[in-house]
Design goal:
The protein contains 13 helices and 14 strands. The protein is of the alpha+beta class.
């Protein structure tokens, strides 16, 4: 007996995608996550542009994580020019990046993934969920206010530039947000307690073994410094990170997939990978709250990504409070510098995982070529493997129940479909 499960448009994800699963006599014969959005051609659009155009243009790739794209581009170009920013400016960059993580995770946890655990179609679908919806929106508002102060506006900020910022806030202006950040930290710990108590229906065997890939740093939770590390013990310097990844085309999708060049393994990026490779850097109070809920690091189940995001929410607020308390305005908002011709590449941790940029500048200082590798495209192959494993383990479920489980697993990855679609290579 044959069975096909097809969803043309998934709800509660960023962007447009669907999936097709086929079974014959209980055996999975086809699993495809179909990205339906048209190519956006950012790699082609950037050719001939100036370095500052790169920072402004890449912000438009995503309305959820524009800071990630801007800072990755700025850091790549600064590495080419040997531009070193002062510690005060570097801490402000961490602060605006932390704010973006908070904004993104708040939406992912409370508006996109959370409703699955209550059996409701949306965060507005049941009055009993209202308090969780309100928590998510309050945390997001706090983060967006911080992004607006540092970046000029909450979506597609305009203040980030090569060498730092076009302007930086006074201590008085920044510390006005300190009370909200401290309340946010308390709320994030409550959110972590809530997440650890959620019902997790999937079994351990539903997930495939996988390789985790993330930045790793000896003293700070990774945002935009350190080395790339895998759970298999491999390490790569950030400028050489693109050499570790091979992209390939799936004929049914407008997004590229990815695998490691060493051995061809699919891999996972994002909160689970970051926590599993960097959990020694989690503050003690946050680890204690996690253990109170019966969880230990490293995580092994993909559905626990909602817990991982709540851990990172607390980590972000914890550091943001400290940065604001210690803030002293730099003497100048940016460090000037010239950019020579050459290859500029860098990697940072966007909310959804590792983000890689590479630019070639010609003798006129313009972009001759570029390559952008977003987190979601890196996760697609691993997500399909997890879907296959889940359907195989639960092929006896009725179609509506199996469909709900597939959708929940996809949302646990928090895919950003629009970010995954750039220039297709034949």
């Amino acid at each position: 007996m044959s069975r096909r499960i097809r969803v043309e448009g998934l709800s509660r994800i960023e962007g447009e995608a669907g999936f097709t699963v086929e079974l014959k006599d209980g055996i999975v014969t086809r699993v495809e996550l179909k990205v339906r959005e048209v190519p956006r051609f950012f790699e082609a659009l950037l050719v001939g542009r100036s370095p500052q155009d790169v920072i402004d243009f890449t912000a438009r790739i995503c309305g959820i994580c524009p800071v990630a794209y801007q800072l990755t581009a700025a850091l790549a170009l600064e590495s080419l020019g040997g531009i070193s920013i002062p510690p005060e400016t570097r801490r402000l960059r961490r602060l605006i990046y932390l704010a973006e993580w908070i904004s993104s995770h708040a939406v992912s946890v409370f508006l996109l993934m959370g409703p699955d655990f209550y059996g409701i179609p949306s965060a507005w679908g049941d009055p009993r969920y209202l308090e969780h919806l309100q928590r998510g929106l309050t945390l997001k508002l706090c983060a967006d206010q911080l992004i607006a102060l540092l970046g000029g506006r909450p979506i597609h900020p305009v203040a980030i530039r090569i060498g730092g910022f076009s302007a930086t806030p006074t201590r008085e202006a920044l510390t006005t947000l300190a009370p909200a950040l401290k309340l946010g930290y308390t709320s994030s710990l409550e959110a972590l307690q809530w997440a650890t108590a959620l019902p997790f229906p999937f079994q351990e065997e539903d997930d495939q073994e996988c390789t985790y890939l993330a930045l790793s740093h000896p003293t700070e939770y990774p945002l935009f410094a350190g080395v790339l590390r895998t759970s298999r013990g491999q390490t790569f310097a950030i400028p050489a990170s693109l050499d570790a990844i091979e992209e390939f085309q799936a004929g049914y999708s407008t997004a590229l997939h990815a695998r490691l060049t060493d051995g061809g393994a699919t891999y996972l990026v994002g909160p689970l990978a970051r926590l599993n490779l960097n959990h020694r850097l989690i503050p003690t109070e946050i680890l204690a709250k996690l253990r109170e809920g019966g969880f230990e690091l490293p995580f092994t189940r993909r559905l626990h990504a909602i817990v991982a995001r709540c851990v990172e929410l607390a980590v972000c607020f914890h550091e943001a409070v400290r940065i604001v308390d210690e803030y002293q305005q730099a003497s100048a908002p940016f460090v000037p510098g010239a950019l020579p011709a050459g290859i500029a590449s860098w990697a940072t941790e966007a909310p959804r995982g590792l983000l890689l940029h590479c630019y070639e500048l010609d003798e006129t200082g313009r972009v001759a070529a570029c390559r952008l590798v977003p987190p979601t495209s890196q996760n697609l192959a691993m997500l399909e493997a997890d879907l296959r494993a889940y359907v195989t383990a639960h092929a006896n479920l009725a179609t509506p129940a199996l469909k709900r489980g597939i959708e929940r697993l996809i949302r646990s990855y928090d895919p950003c479909i629009s970010c995954s679609v750039h220039l297709l290579r034949g």
